[in-house]
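If your schedule permits, I should be very grateful for your opinion on a structural question. Thank you for your consideration; the sequence and its tokens are set out here:

===
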Amino acid sequence: MRWTSTEAELRQLLDAAQPSGTAPRPGERFDHGILLRLAGVFDCVSVTYQVSEPFAERFEHVVSAEGGSIVDETQTDPDWERQYWPAHWESLSCCYPETTGDHESVTLGQDFTTDLDYRNSFMGEMCDFMEVMLVPLPWAGELDRRLLLWRTAGDRFDEADRLKLTLLRPHLLRVLEAHDRAAKGLPPLTPRERELMVLVADGLTNRQIGRALGISEGTVRKHLEHVYSRLGVSNRVSALALVGQSA
């Protein structure tokens, strides 16, 4: 497949994943402005941010951008939910991240089933034959977090859509991390500090980090002292524990 895009289209794509620049609203787990912009850029019926505990078979948080508004769908009908979870585990398009451990790959519904089989499945009936693209996000403990982009039946997502969301995913992860940190009252880290803490998490020494980043060992030490001060800790183990809680 060959895909071309103009500079304006790429800029629109990147802008869609930029933080809205406002403090999170009460109960806001993911930037609602981004959900609304993604719905426009990808011409979706809705874009859903979903948090569930799949192994306990419950939804914790579900919001969707639909028709230019944010709709809270967290409170589901108990009868519907009892029917949903068996169908979830039978549908690889739904349970692929938690059953394979692949929490990075953007997937399309047609990766796993034919249109005919999907239409004849219980999940197809529940979702009204809609096209879906799944963007997995890092788990928070036992909680699965994901973005779901929906289109009406017959309006297919394609490989270009998958590629665009794959390119956007690192930007979306940074937004999610910032929201997690804000919710925990933790100050945001700068891009350089985030980069440094990734290397710390990999077990590198200050000298090795300096070589990797092209800075002196003393500068690495100063960066770490600043991180410790911002987080209110005194060592890298405690800093990693706090940073890891927001992942």
Observations:
- The first strand starts at residue 46 and ends at 53.
- Residues 40 and 68 are 9 Å apart (CA to CA).
- The chain has a mean pLDDT of 85.
